[in-house]
Please model this.
Amino acid sequence: MAMIKLTLNDRMISLDEWAPYFFIIRDLFFDGRWDSFMCIVSDNPLMEEQIETCKKIEKLYPEIKAELFYPTTPLEIRDFFKEYHIKLSVMKDLCSLDTLYDIANEALLDEDFELTLEYAQLIMDIDDSSAYAYDLKGTVLFDQGKTKKSIENLEKAIKLDDGLLEAFSTLGQAYFNVHEYEKAASIWKKMIKKNPDDVLAYFTLVDAYLHQKKFQDAISVLKDLIERFPKHLMGKINLITILQMIGENKLAEQYEKEIEQTKPLNPTELEIWARMNLQKGKYSVVEDGIKKYLDLHGGPDFLNLWLVVPYIKNGKKKQAMEIVNAFKGSNMLFNYGKHEIFDPFLEESEIWECGLPC
Model:
């Protein structure tokens, strides 16, 4: 075994290769407190002696911190406890796992799935009722395409802690991916109940209902979304589509009128609003609305393409051509302008006359 020799107060101190890990374990599990660390070593004289020595060293050399010995790995942590004959499970309720949660989450964000799983298993071996560990493991398995095992772990996670909304979200998607739409819908309904402001949960729930052909349920969810967020254009456009699908055209028209009169708050909403008003032939309304939006927000530039149709329809060919010429040589003119704007709203003769992409 490798030894480190230090002179402390004219006394030679021998430290083995595990000495740095006392600093690491103290910070990882005991919030940097030696007294908390001592709670698990009361029957281990060797560890007690090591800790007392580390405390003396730290007092003389305050710059010695656990960060000097990082990084470490779950395997090294296991080896440390094995070396001193401490079962990981005895640490439950005696230590904090918050730092391990943070490290494991960083590994997950870095897509280091192997390391994330190692930390998740380490946490489980310490506390087999750790909901977050099951959440971590289930999320990694989901990302790896191991959906069945993912579901097993995520179900355990939400059973242990029904406040883990991210676990609910992943679990719902996992059920959806294996075509268990009823279970997916059940999960997303719970998510909305827990957090009514989770807009994405409304849309995923609608998707689950549509796959079951439960159109009225999907309509009900979108109405709830719109009631909570009256200005949400995507909710309204989805609702209109479903209403038209089942033949409720009169109700669909009511929501279309709401969209026509809405003040768009972002480029996506502006596109929806412009499309709806162009379909109704309200060219001056679109021209005025887009100009005001661009004056207020200063862009994005591609929204200028939506002015081409109202300019042409209102006899302002020169202004329309100025915009077209500004985008010449850009894929945006053909891929976006032609397919999304010009072809749906201009006559073929108007497209030819203004030299627009054919």
About this structure: The CA atoms of residues 185 and 205 lie 5 Å apart. The mean pLDDT is 89. Strands lie at 3-8, 11-16.
